[in-house]
Every structure is written in structure tokens, then in C-alpha cells.
């Protein structure tokens, strides 16, 4: 059996054990677009302890089943790599197509769906069989990807078209297109709501997933800033599902939004151009990679105040919590 076959066999074993409790590791993974590497941050020590090389322009990252594989989109390599945190090495390379940006996993962990900016497609990849299943044509510059809770639908944004496409997995085609704001970037599911960050509208659209219509728009205006100063991108949901955190890019702030009321509760100053945000398992901390200050802000979520920064790689893009 070759290395790819061994990797797939290992994945099948992980999927079989995915129901077991994963061991918390107390660390963060931060991708660095400029360094082509991953920063591993020890939360207890509050510092970067390793910077393994990954691929060209690593972007979105996500832990797989049992939290024993970290998948990373390699924007300039046309693939997604599977990195083993325990071994500290890449164990598989998935050929998903040109310029992958964001991806999401099916609820059972067997299928990965990736946006390809180069070909304006959504690609489905079978992680167990190690092969591409299909690709669906979508609008220009697709980015955000989110799989529905039941795994039957995949949502994908098109920055150029200003829409969210709804892809039926069984039919392998777009079945609905929902107009949102300008340059929609990321997607977040909060119960029956799908949140969409609109980078050039300084807003987030909220979609009712039962009706597939926009039911609300949340505007972001930190004190003293205009619409052109605010570029919302990454989002995260609190463990209790009551709060959405939004990284505001050029505004150098994170917005704190009440999910039920769809209103901003406040803004937290962080580093320069925050591009993503993640929440600790207990909901008390936010982790925010800042793309232009090459660091990561650690925020007290209750006090809504940055506590300290940690140096990570150049142009950090995404953060994953393994706590």
C-alpha cells in the first residue's frame, strides 16, 4: 500500500473512532500566507512553539474527525494538505483544483467541499476514497463555504456576483441563488440563520435557511469610522449560540453581535487588519489573527478587551483552536 493508501486507511480508522471524545491539546494553529507555514501556539505558555512548513500560500484550516488531522487550503498549490499534529508532518495531499480558498467538511467527515477561485467552482472531494467526486460551476471568485447541518446542501459565496449559491449535494447543481451585499466573503451557521460577511458593504446579511431569503442586515460602524473603513471577513459563533464575533479587517476591530436581536453589542480593538476569529471551547477567549501586524490577539470575550498579543507568521490568515 502506498503512502496515500495508508493515509486513507488511517482516515477511515479515525472516522470509525470519531464518536469518542477527542483529547484537548491547549493549542492554536495559525496559517501564514507569506511564510508558507503554520504557527503552533501553546496556550499555556502564550507563545509560538513551532512553525512547520506547509505549502504555498496556506489559507483556511479546519480540524477533521477526532481532531487528529488539520486540513489546510494551499492557495498557490491547487491542493489541500492533511497535516498530522501528533507527527508534525503532512500525511496526504488532496488535488482539489485551482486556487482553493475556503472549505468545509460534511457532518460525517467523509466529504470535503472547497471553493476554487481559479475555476469559479465548488469542488467535492471524497476523503476516504481519496478522489474528486464532482465540481459545480458558481459565480466568480467563490470564497465562503458552509455545509448544512444535515449535509444535503452546501452554501458558497461569490464575491463578484454578490450572491450566495445553494448547492444540492444529491443533484450536484445550484438550486438557489440568494443576493446579499457587495463582495460576500465568509459564511457562518447559527441555528437556522446563515450569516454572510459582506466585505465592501461593511455589513453581514442574515439568511433564513428555511426560506433561503435575507431577513436582516447588520451594519458595522466602529466609532469614528465610515463604511469604507470596515471590511468584515471571518466570523465565529459563541458555544452557547448567542453571540457572533466578526473580524472587521481594515477597521482593526472585532464586532460583538447579539444573534437573537441581530444588533451589535460593541467593538473590540485588536491588531492591524484582523482577518479571522475563533472562540475557545468555554467561550471566554477570542483568538484573532492580524494580517498586517503579523500577530494574534487574545481577547477576553466577557470583558470585550484584548489581553495580549502573540507573534505568529507573516500575514496570518486563519486560526483553529484545539483546546
Automatic annotation (TrEMBL):
This is Beta-propeller fold lactonase family protein. The keyword Signal applies. It comes from the Bacteria. Residues 103-185 form the YNCE-like beta-propeller domain. NCBIfam families: beta_rpt_yvtn (TIGR02276). Keywords: Signal. Pfam families: YNCE.
Amino acid at each position: 500500500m502506498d503512502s496515500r493508501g495508508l493515509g486513507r486507511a488511517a482516515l477511515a480508522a479515525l472516522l470509525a473512532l470519531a464518536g469518542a471524545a477527542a483529547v484537548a491539546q491547549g493549542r492554536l494553529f495559525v496559517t501564514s500566507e507569506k511564510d508558507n507555514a503554520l504557527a503552533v501556539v501553546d496556550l499555556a505558555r502564550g507563545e509560538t512553539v513551532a512553525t512547520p512548513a506547509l505549502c504555498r500560500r496556506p489559507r483556511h484550516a479546519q480540524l477533521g474527525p477526532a481532531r487528529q488531522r488539520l486540513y489546510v487550503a494551499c492557495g498557490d498549490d491547487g491542493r489541500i494538505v492533511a497535516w498530522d499534529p501528533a507527527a508534525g508532518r503532512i500525511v496526504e495531499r488532496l488535488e482539489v483544483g485551482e486556487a482553493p480558498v475556503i472549505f468545509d467538511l460534511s457532518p460525517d467527515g467523509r466529504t470535503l467541499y472547497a471553493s476554487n477561485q481559479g475555476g469559479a467552482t465548488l469542488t467535492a472531494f471524497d476523503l476516504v476514497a481519496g478522489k474528486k467526486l464532482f465540481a459545480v460551476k458558481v459565480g466568480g471568485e467563490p470564497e465562503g463555504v458552509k455545509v448544512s447541518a444535515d449535509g444535503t446542501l452546501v452554501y458558497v459565496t461569490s464575491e463578484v456576483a454578490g450572491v450566495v449559491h445553494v448547492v444540492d449535494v444529491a443533484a450536484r447543481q445550484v438550486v438557489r441563488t440568494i443576493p446579499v451585499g457587495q463582495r460576500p466573503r465568509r459564511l457562518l451557521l447559527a441555528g437556522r440563520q446563515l450569516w454572510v460577511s459582506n466585505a465592501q458593504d461593511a455589513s453581514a446579511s442574515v439568511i433564513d435557511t428555511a426560506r433561503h431569503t435575507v431577513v436582516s442586515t447588520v451594519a458595522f460602524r466602529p466609532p469614528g469610522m465610515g463604511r469604507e473603513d470596515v471590511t468584515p471577513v471571518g466570523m465565529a459563533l459563541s458555544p452557547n449560540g448567542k453571540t457572533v464575533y466578526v473580524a472587521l479587517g481594515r477597521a482593526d476591530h472585532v464586532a460583538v453581535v447579539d444573534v437573537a436581536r441581530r444588533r451589535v453589542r460593541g467593538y473590540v480593538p485588536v491588531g492591524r487588519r484582523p482577518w479571522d476569529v475563533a472562540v475557545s471551547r468555554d467561550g471566554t477567549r477570542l483568538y484573532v489573527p492580524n494580517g498586517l501586524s503579523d500577530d494574534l490577539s487574545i481577547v477576553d470575550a466577557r470583558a470585550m478587551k484584548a489581553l495580549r498579543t502573540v507573534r505568529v507568521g507573516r500575514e496570518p490568515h486563519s486560526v483553529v483552536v484545539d483546546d
